[in-house]
Amino acid sequence: MSVDQNSILLLSSNVRRRYSEDILTALALPSGAMIQFRYETDYVSPTLQRTVASGSIVSSAVTIAFVAETETDNPFLLPVRHAKVISAVCVADIFIFRLQVGSYVNLGDFPRNEGEIRNRSRVILDQVTAANKRYYPAVTSFPDLHMRESVDPAGDWLSSARRLVLHSTFSNSYFLRIDPPTTQTGSPLTFNSDGRLEVVDRESVRIHVSFYSGLYAPERKHVLSCTTDGTFLRVSSDDSYEVALRYDSVEFWLHPGSLDFNTLSRVTISLTGEQEISDFVPTHARFPVVVKRSASRLTLRVATTALGALLVALPAILGASSPLAVRIAIGLVGAALLATSTVVLGSTTK
Predict the structure, then answer these.
(1) CATH, residue 200
(2) Which of 48, 142, 190, 270 has the smallest CB count inside 10 Å?
(3) Same domain? 57 vs 141
(4) Would residue 137 count as lying in a domain?
(5) Which of 276, 293, 310 lies at the terminal end of a domain, its last residue?
(6) Model-level pTM greater than 0.85?
(7) pLDDT, tens digit (0-9, with 9 covering 90-100), for 103-156
(8) Does residue 349 form part of some domain?
C-alpha cells in the first residue's frame, strides 16, 4: 500500500462527459503541457486536503486514471498518465489541481482483457477505500497499480488506448497523441514551468499528431483540426483532416508572426464527430504558446539601423572634399540599410 505523501492518485470518471474528455486530453497532450483537474471537497481525502493546505503538494508525483462503475461489484479502473503537481488550491469548496503531464504509463504488468481489468480494479478500489476509510477519487494512499517505467512513449500510449477502448465510454472514440513540438529543422521546443510552449517569432513550428480508434465506422464523419488565434500564431498548413482510417498520423505547421512584443496565444488540437453521434467522446487538447520576439533579430535590426544612419550622415561629414560619386554611393547604401531595417526586419504582425 502506498502511503507516500508525495504520491497522489487522481481518478476521473464517466459520470459527466467532461470527465471522460479529461482522460482523452491527458492521453493527448505532449509532455510538459498543463492539464487541470477539479474536485469538490467531499471527493478529496482528508490527508490530501491537508497536503494542499500546507503547500507541500507542489512537485508531487501524480498518477491520472480512468474509473467507472465504482458503486458496483464490477468496476473499471485504468491508469493512463504520469504527471507532476504545479499548484493546488481550494477555492470555496472546490479543489483545483494544475498538473504538468509527464510520461505515459507502462501497463506491461496490467491485465489486457476487460474481465481481468475489472477484477484487478475491484481489488484496487477496495484497498483505496480501506486505506482512506471510504472511497475518494483523489487520494494519497493507494495500492500498487502494477506500472513499469516507461521506455516507449508511443507503445505505452497505444497500450493504454487499447485497454480504454474495452470500456463502453470509449468504444467509439478516437485517441490522440501529440508529439513534443519541434522547429522546422527538427530542434525540440520546450514547455516552461507554467506549461507554456515557448517559440520565437518567424520560427515555424511542426506538430505531429497520431490517432487511433478501436472501431472504425465509415458512415461516421470525424475531423481532426488545429486552431490558433490566427493573428500572432497562424496555421501554415492544412488546418483540418477528415479522418478516414482507424489509425494514422498527420502533421500541422504553425507560423508565429513578427512582433514588437511577446504575446500569449493558444493551440487547440481537436478530433470531433458529427453532433448526432451521442456515444462519441471528442478530444480537445489545448496548450498555451508564448511567442517571443527574437533577440537576434532585434540586435540585427539595431545594428543595421545604426550603420545605415551613419552611412547616410557620412557624406555630409566628408564634405565637398570627397568625390561626389563616392558620397552618393555611401548615401544610397545607408538608405538601403535603413529601408531593410524598417521594412524587412521591422515588419510586425498587426
Answers:
(1) 2.60.40.10
(2) 190
(3) yes
(4) yes
(5) 293
(6) no
(7) 999 998 899 999 999 999 999 999 999 999 999 999 999 998 878 778 899 999
(8) no
